[in-house]
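Note to self: keep these together.
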Amino acid sequence: MMLHSPIDIVLTEYDVVQPDVVFFRAERRHLINMSKATRVPPDLAVEVLSRSTERRDRGRKMELLARSGVPEYWIVDPVANVLEVHERHEGHYMLSGVFSEHDYVQSPTLPGLTFDAARVFAE
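Structure:
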């Protein structure tokens, strides 16, 4: 199940994030109540960078999602047409791959999620 903002992800009583896009595997969809903020970390969180959000998206929000157990975090740079895929290892994200619009992307944590990166940047 893919959801886009606004959707609040309550990570702790003091930390609530609102990624641009979140994805939950089919077997976890029953944990989501669309009429409430979710307290379940997604399987994938995606942020689309802008000048006003880049520092937060690469900093505090990224750290919170990693600590909360989100296995995969993508950062989309629409100016450079680059998709960064980060995979969680030992509580932190490690860069798994950087893809341009000419590349083919395969998720490191979501089997079967493969696509042409150009689809992310299509207008």
